[in-house]
Design brief:
Elements: H1 14-17, H2 21-24, E1 26-35, H3 40-51, E2 61-65, H4 75-78, H5 85-88, E3 91-92, E4 94-100, H6 102-114, E5 120-128, E6 136-144, E7 151-156, E8 162-170, H7 173-184, E9 189-192, E10 195-203, E11 206-214, E12 220-221, E13 226-232, H8 237-243, E14 247-250, E15 253-257, E16 263-268, H9 272-285
Parallel strand pairs: 1-2, 3-12, 4-7, 8-11, 13-16
Antiparallel strand pairs: 1-13, 4-8, 5-6, 6-7, 9-10, 10-11, 14-15, 15-16
């Protein structure tokens, strides 16, 4: 005697055919810096003094040879060659903010102040009271190592974990907030009007964040030699294409631009075994002047 199978038994369940929200949420954020090979050693030497307390292993900020840069073909997307001199002299949109305890803060700030020929004060923002936004409680100074790299700033933190925050200065805060919420499937935590934070990942003693900060008093320009890399366990390419046009540059990485022209890399890292294989392969292929972490 034979039995016919119910056709519905052959259909994959919804769980098998669709990605869960947890799988497609933003998992990690890093910054890639692309430089000529000859500039990498000196840049690494100076940046490690700033990053030593939050990223001593260069896990979250990578310095790579610009011959492999996904920014090499970016002119056709951003028309950077048509920028005016005023735009070229504007403030970099991407910055790195590091929150340290008082002792570490004084140490790193002393390094910056002792190397004024290397670190130039480039931009200052006012720190406003969270309750009364009309009250200025201080200022945050942003320093420039190179016009093509992100700005850097150090801030003291009186308690809790250290923080590594990738900040994007924006003109249209609401439009950018909505874009990044849809792209990352994460909620932006409002701190005050025109300023919000995405809490990306927590490690023992360290928080990794992305922030959007409205900046209406300066000309903003995309940072030429650095890009944010957003990592997902599973990248829902079809969904992301509804948010932003993606261009695939290798089997795991896609490139896109946010509404204000900043380049973003989206990477699917898959499961743990894939990560380990990629990491071993990347280390073998890396040159002495190139740091690669996945």
């Amino acid at each position: 005697m034979s039995f016919k199978k119910d056709p519905t038994e052959l259909r994959p369940t919804r769980k098998e055919t669709s990605l869960t929200r947890k799988e497609t949420n933003l998992y990690l954020c890093k910054a890639d810096i692309f430089l000529p090979r000859t500039e990498i050693p000196a840049t690494r030497k100076h940046l490690e003094k700033i990053l030593n307390h939050v990223d001593p292993g260069w896990k979250f900020i990578r310095i790579r040879d610009n011959e492999s840069s996904p920014l090499n073909t970016i002119d056709k997307h951003l028309n950077l060659s048509n920028q005016t001199d005023n735009e070229e002299s504007g403030v970099q949109a991407l910055s790195v903010i590091i929150f340290l305890n008082e002792v570490q803060y004084q140490e790193v700030l002393g390094t910056i102040h002792n190397e004024t020929e290397i670190w130039q004060l480039r931009h200052t923002t006012k720190l406003l009271n969270n309750i009364d936004s009309s009250t200025v409680i201080g200022c945050m100074d942003f320093y420039e190592y190179s016009p093509d790299l992100p700005l850097w700033t150090i801030s003291p933190k009186h308690f809790g974990s250290k923080v590594l925050r990738f900040n994007i200065f924006v003109k249209d805060f609401e439009k950018m907030r909505e874009y990044y919420e849809r792209l990352t499937l994460q909620q932006c935590h409002f701190v005050r009007k025109g300023f919000g934070i995405f809490k990306v990942h927590s490690y023992p003693g360290l928080e990794v964040q992305i922030s959007l900060k409205s900046e209406l008093n300066a000309e903003l320009r995309p940072t030429k030699s650095a890009v944010l890399r957003l990592k997902f366990r599973k990248l829902d390419v079809a969904r992301c294409n509804f948010v932003s046009i993606l261009e695939q540059i290798n089997p795991q990485v896609w490139r896109t631009n946010d509404p204000e022209g900043n380049v973003i890399l989206l990477e699917e890292i898959g499961n743990g075994s894939h990560d380990k294989r990629t990491k071993r392969r990347s280390k073998c292929e890396a040159t002495k002047e190139e740091l690669v972490f996945v």
